[in-house]
Amino acid sequence: QVQLVESGGGLVQTGGSLRLSCAVSVRTFSSYAMGWFRQGPGKEREFVAAISRSGGTTYYADSVKGRFTISRDNNKSTVYLQMNSLKPEDTAVYYCAARLILHTGVVVTPNEYTYWGQGTQVTVSS
After folding, report:
1. pLDDT, tens digit (0-9, with 9 covering 90-100), for 64-81
2. Side-chain half-sphere of 69: how many Cα atoms within 13 Å?
3. CA distances from 104 to 31, 56, 89 (A)
4. Sign of the CA dihedral 53, 55, 59, 61?
5. DSSP secondary structure, 3-27, as one string
6. 3-7 β-sheet, strand order
7. pLDDT tens across 37-74, in order?
8. Which of 62, 58, 61 is nearest to 48 (CA)?
């Protein structure tokens, strides 16, 4: 069973930064494409960022491009989301997701992911 555990959420002021981590309990972490999604109050879950198995390819939602950076450490079986210049509209529960994948691309659709973490709350005050 693959387990994902997010951490690093919290309360931050507008313009601040947070770094989310997602530790994945799996032997072959480098075989998994990873993604971050978020769900704000009263909103549907939306895509934030994705990264390929090797970390060589990344993809971002337009709303976070230039402010967020996704990365991974395959030796530590962990994916990160560095969030800078945070805005109140970034307030949401952030989820990481994993999918065992054969190709080297990214996965951006939530329905394509197999495993999900429990989420971590990010609140940005104005």
Report:
1. 999 999 999 999 999 999
2. 9
3. 9, 9, 32
4. positive
5. EEEEE--EEEETT--EEEEEEEE-T
6. 3-7, 18-25, 78-83, 68-73
7. 999 999 999 999 999 999 999 999 999 999 999 999 99
8. 61
